[in-house]
Amino acid sequence: MKRVFILTGWCCAIVVAGACAPAFAADDFAQRFALQLEDGAAYYSVTLPAAVYAASQRGDLGDVRVFNGAGEPVPYSLDAPREPSRTPPTLRPARWFPLPPAAARSSGAPLGVTIAGDGSLRATSAPPSRAQHDTDLIDVGRMPRTSRVSALLVHLRDDNYQGRVSVEASDDLRHWQPAGDAQLLKVSYNGSTLSQDRIELAGTPARYLRLHWLDGAPYVDSMDMEMQAVAVEPAQRADRAWREGIVAHAGPKPGEYFFSTGGPYPVDRLRLNLPQPNTVAPAVVYSRAGLETPWREVAGAMLFRLHNGAVEQSNPSLELTPDTDRQWRVVVDTRNGGLGSGTLTIAAGWRQATLTFVARGAAPFTLAVGNAATASSAVSRSDLLMGASAVPATAHLGDALSAAQAASAQAASHDPDAMRRYGLWAALLLAVGSLGAIAWRLARRAQAPAGSAGSAGSAGSAGSAGSAGSAVSAGSAGSAGIAPGGAPGGSAGTEAASAAAKPPGGGGVPGQGGNG
Predict the structure, then answer these.
(1) Measuring CA to CA, which residue among 392, 491, 499, 351 is closest to residue 35?
(2) At 434, is the secondary structure helix, strand, or coil?
(3) 285-291 contacts, C-beta under 8 A, 24 or more apart
(4) How many CB atoms lie within 10 A of CB 31?
(5) Total of domains in the chain
(6) Is the alpha carbon torsion for 27, 33, 34, 35 positive or negative?
(7) Are 159 and 249 in the same domain?
(8) Are residues 247 and 343 in contact, defined by beta-carbon separation less than 8 angstroms?
(9) Beta partners for 242?
(10) 84 versus 280: which is more confidently predicted?
């Protein structure tokens, strides 16, 4: 019987697990987002915003899923943006010509400069004085199609300079377009020099560059052009998203600050905003995935925030290898006062991943995320598209669904499986009823032989009890006599019982013949 009940329990557990498994698979996600699709496309792509990263419980976004209206997961691929493979840049000296303000605004070749037949520039007069100098013209020269000027390095002669500069590009000295801007800095303190001399350019191919000094022109010692090879195949690029206003909390040690990004963002830029102006301090940045892992160094930088009249300049963003760690630590050198009082704030930037999925089944489609126990089921983009030439349509991710909306979506997604669940429950009840009937029949069969043996035993026991009762009664009667002298008449009682058992004619018992 015990084995029968154990078997019944296992059957019940298996059937219940089979009935409830689809609901568990679709319901164990912390957050859901509605997907808005265009009709008719087979494939869709959506860029994952910061809210999806914040809800994810895995560092690789392995807990992201896309469900159709029936609650079924659909195939998908997850692709992180790839930066172009960059070869080390090469430096080439730049030829520049200082211009007065009037010459910079003229069309064609500016005053004091002539253009040769090959497009090169030549100076025809002495450079203007510093008071009249606010523009520099650079002749980039002939450039191969496989190279671009990615940056300008301006080496200043001044020991102390702080100012803004904007850059324009042109091929004919008449039509100009913005190419970049920066803040240049050179400050000497305690025998060391803090310098920021790089101007990042947009990479637009152009023959000429024009620099406008917005806060007065510095004494330029030399300029270098940073040449970067252009990739043959265009790389997949995505706009960089930023999470601003992250507050760093002071640690137990001086100069130690801790902050959390709040999600597995693949951070590749980190901007540290100092609380007080006119601050200069070296710092080292560390990160780790959790409390049980050690800190690892990811970057070192000179942090500064300098204020000079209307110009304020801060340290540029730190460039990092994509880092999905949540916990960060900044250690600042406090020998010169550290960061002073106030709050250190951080901005973290990353390039957003793209999710591509197959629109299998009926709408509505939802994106679910937030289950640490779920492993990634993404396939490669090439395997997902299977050579399809069509470009995936763009899907739009709506706001996060509330608890009530998510419950409604889940209930709607479970309706197509209702008949299957009803069938499973019916099978469960049938199995339990069958097992109960079998147990009842086995119990009846076990009780039948036991009842027959019990009846025979009862009859034998009754006969034995009757004989024993007669003997006991006779013994009791004999035992009732008292022997002379007050001793119990046990022997006399025994003899009387024996005489009573003898047949007639066998002799009488003394003292009893007169009564016969």
Answers:
(1) 392
(2) helix
(3) 285/318, 285/328, 285/329, 285/330, 286/328, 286/329, 286/330, 286/331, 287/323, 287/325, 287/327, 287/328, 287/329, 288/325, 288/327, 288/329, 289/59, 289/324, 289/325, 289/326, 289/327, 290/326, 290/327, 291/327
(4) 17
(5) 3
(6) negative
(7) no
(8) yes
(9) 349
(10) 280
The CB density around residue 304, as the number of other CB atoms within 10 Å, is 19
The three-point CA angle 497-503-508 to 5° equals: 65
How many angstroms separate the CA atoms of 290 and 46, rounded? 29
Q: Give me the pLDDT at residue 395, please.
A: 93
Q: Mean pLDDT, to the nearest integer, of 447-457?
A: 54
Q: What was the pLDDT predicted at 268? A: 94
Whether the per-residue pLDDT at 491 is higher than 70: the answer is no
HEC secondary structure over 466-506: HHHHHHHHHHHHHHHCECHHHCECHHHHHHHHHHHHCCCCC
Give the count of beta carbons closer than 10 Å to the beta carbon of residue 216.
14
Name which of 342, 334, 346 is nearest 254 in CA terms. 334
Beta strands in 37-115 (DSSP E): 43-47, 65-67, 76-79, 90-93, 95-99, 113-115
Rounded distance, CA 146 to CA 90, Å? Answer: 13
Q: Are 96 and 390 in contact (CB under 8 A)?
A: no
Q: Which of 329, 351, 373 is the last residue of a domain?
A: 351
Angle between helices 2-27 and 418-480 (to 10 degrees): 150
- CATH number assigned to the domain comprising residue 336: 2.60.120
**What is the pLDDT confidence band of residue 243, given thresholds at 50, 70 and 90?**
very high
Peptide bond into 510 cis (omega under 30): no
| pTM metric for this prediction | 0.65
287 closest CA partner among 265, 315, 255, 317: 265
Give the Å distances, CA to CA, from 76 to 26, 35, 212, 366, 389: 16, 14, 49, 13, 17
Instruction: Give the closest residue to 138 by CA, choosing from 117, 108, 113.
Output: 113
Same domain, 105 and 189: yes
Full residue range of the structural domain in which residue 339 is found:
240-351
Partners of 301 in the β-ladder: 283
Confidence at residue 246, expressed as pLDDT on a 0 to 100 scale: 97
Given 176, 207, 229, the domain boundary residue is 229
Counting every residue written for the chain, the total comes to 516
Residue at 429 is within a domain: no
Is 438 domain-assigned?
Answer: no
Residue 515 lies in a domain: no
